[in-house]
Specification:
A hairpin with a 2-residue loop joins β2 and β3. The protein starts with a strand and ends with a strand. It is of the alpha+beta class and about 70 residues long. It has a five-stranded mixed beta sheet with strand order 1-5-4-3-2.
């Protein structure tokens, strides 16, 4: 799994104490729903908003509290 992070998502991860591993787990195991052309994966106490770039390649736009 290849994951790219926006600058904003990196900042949100640092401020909320979320690791890269947790973000990957959210993409793999989180409850998903669509938001316009993006996917939102709710996991534990946060949600990851991302796009699928290609097979097994993801771009995380932001990470927000649930």
């Amino acid at each position: 799994m290849i994951v790219y992070y926006s600058k904003h998502s990196r900042e949100q991860m640092i401020s909320r104490g979320i690791s890269e591993q947790e973000a990957r787990e959210a993409i793999q195991s989180g409850a998903k729903h669509l938001q316009d052309d993006k996917i939102v994966a709710a996991y534990r106490y946060f949600a990851v908003v991302y796009k699928v770039v290609e097979k097994d390649c993801y771009f995380i736009i932001t990470i927000k509290p649930r």
